[in-house]
Amino acid sequence: MPTSKKGEGVPPPAAISAVGLRKSFGDKTVLDGIDLRIPTGSVFALLGPNGAGKTTVVKILSTLITADAGELRVGGHDVAAEPQAVRAAIGVTGQFSAVDGLITGEENMLLMADLQHLPRQEGRRVAAELLERFDLTDAAKKPASSYSGGMKRRLDLAMTLVGDPRIIFLDEPTTGLDPRSRHNMWQIIRELLADGVTVFLTTQYLEEADELADRIAVLHDGKIAAEGSSEELKRIVPGGHVRLRFTDPAAYRTAVATLHEADRDDDALALRVPSDGTQRELRSLLDRLDSAGIETDELSVHTPDLDDVFFALTGGTDKHKETAR
Ligand SMILES: Nc1ncnc2c1ncn2[C@@H]1O[C@H](COP(=O)(O)OP(=O)(O)OP(=O)(O)O)[C@@H](O)[C@H]1O
C-alpha cells in the first residue's frame, strides 16, 4: 500500500499553512484563530461535526472567500496577496461540484481542459487517460446527469486533475456514497498520495480520517480541539487499556492481588489494566509483572477508537446528526 509516512530527518516543507485564521459571518464566529501546517506529500484530514466550519476553511484556503485574519500560505504563495498563483497550484472538489449534468462526462473533461488552456490534442489525451483511470470510459458519452453519486464524484475529481495540481482539497469526498464507492474513492486518494500530491480532506467520517490521513485535526467551536496522527489522538481520551489473559488460575489470582487497579473478568481469567499504551506505561506494567513472577499467556494493548476521541472532544452532541446526511 502506498504511504506518505516519512522517516526521520528534515521535515518536508509545508504545502499549506495557516496561522491565526479567523472568519466570522455577521456576529457568528466560525473560525476563531486556527493554526495548521500540512507537509508536502501528506494527507491531512479536518474533522468536525456539521456546521463546524470545515467547508469555510477549504473555501478560504482555495481563495473562494477571504479570511478576516490570519497568515495563510498554499503551495508557497500568500493566499491574500497571490490568489491567482494559489489557484494555479491547487485543485478543489467537493460539495460545490463542477460537474455539468447536461453534457457528457467526456465533454465535462474537455471543457475543463479548455479552461486549463491545454492544446486540443493534449486535452483529448489527458481527458481519455483520466476517464480510463477513474473507470469512466464506458460512461464517457453519456450525460453526467445519468451518473451515480460515486461516478459523479469520480468525474468531479478527474476534472480537478486535468491541470495536474500538486495540492488537492477534497471537501467531504465520500459523503453520501455507498461503502463500495467510498472504498474506491479511498483507493484513488491513496494513488494521488503515491504520486506525491498533498491532500487536504474534510470529512465527518472518522473511519475515513483513520484510513487515509497522516495527521488529523478536530475542529470544534471555531478552534482546533486536537491535532495529531490517529494513534496520537486515540491516546488522549480515556478508555485505553492493556488486557492480560491467563490460562493458569493461580497466575491469574497472583495478578489480581498485584494489579489492584485492574478490572477483573474471572470467567475469562482476564484483567483490564488502564493504560495510555505508551512505552513508559507498558514498561512499568511489565516490570511489575516480572517482579511478582507473573507470566501472562496473552497481552494486548487496546487504544480507544477515533469515535471515542471525536465525541469526547466535541461533547458528543452530534453523534446522531453525523450519520443523518
Ligand atoms: N456565507 C455564509 N453566510 C453566513 N453563514 C455562513 C456562510 N457560510 C457558512 N456559514 C455558517 O458557518 C458555519 C460553518 O459552515 P461550514 O459550511 O463551513 O461548516 P462545515 O463544517 O463544512 O459543515 P457541513 O459538514 O455541514 O458542510 C455554519 O454555521 C454555517 O451556517
TrEMBL record:
<dbReference type="Pfam" id="PF00005">
    <property type="entry name" value="ABC_tran"/>
</dbReference>
<comment type="similarity">
    <text>Belongs to the ABC transporter superfamily. Drug exporter-1 (DrugE1) (TC 3.A.1.105) family.</text>
</comment>
<dbReference type="GO" id="GO:0005886">
    <property type="term" value="C:plasma membrane"/>
</dbReference>
<keyword id="KW-1278">Translocase</keyword>
<dbReference type="GO" id="GO:0043215">
    <property type="term" value="P:daunorubicin transport"/>
</dbReference>
<dbReference type="InterPro" id="IPR027417">
    <property type="entry name" value="P-loop_NTPase"/>
</dbReference>
<dbReference type="InterPro" id="IPR003439">
    <property type="entry name" value="ABC_transporter-like_ATP-bd"/>
</dbReference>
<dbReference type="InterPro" id="IPR017871">
    <property type="entry name" value="ABC_transporter-like_CS"/>
</dbReference>
<keyword id="KW-0046">Antibiotic resistance</keyword>
<keyword id="KW-0472">Membrane</keyword>
<dbReference type="InterPro" id="IPR050763">
    <property type="entry name" value="ABC_transporter_ATP-binding"/>
</dbReference>
<dbReference type="GO" id="GO:0046677">
    <property type="term" value="P:response to antibiotic"/>
</dbReference>
<feature type="domain" description="ABC transporter">
    <location>
        <begin position="16"/>
        <end position="246"/>
    </location>
</feature>
<dbReference type="InterPro" id="IPR005894">
    <property type="entry name" value="DrrA"/>
</dbReference>
<dbReference type="GO" id="GO:1900753">
    <property type="term" value="P:doxorubicin transport"/>
</dbReference>
<keyword id="KW-0547">Nucleotide-binding</keyword>
<dbReference type="GO" id="GO:0016887">
    <property type="term" value="F:ATP hydrolysis activity"/>
</dbReference>
<keyword id="KW-0067">ATP-binding</keyword>
<dbReference type="GO" id="GO:0008559">
    <property type="term" value="F:ABC-type xenobiotic transporter activity"/>
</dbReference>
<keyword id="KW-0813">Transport</keyword>
<protein>
    <recommendedName>
        <fullName>ABC-type xenobiotic transporter</fullName>
        <ecNumber>7.6.2.2</ecNumber>
    </recommendedName>
</protein>
<keyword id="KW-1003">Cell membrane</keyword>
<dbReference type="InterPro" id="IPR003593">
    <property type="entry name" value="AAA+_ATPase"/>
</dbReference>
<dbReference type="GO" id="GO:0005524">
    <property type="term" value="F:ATP binding"/>
</dbReference>
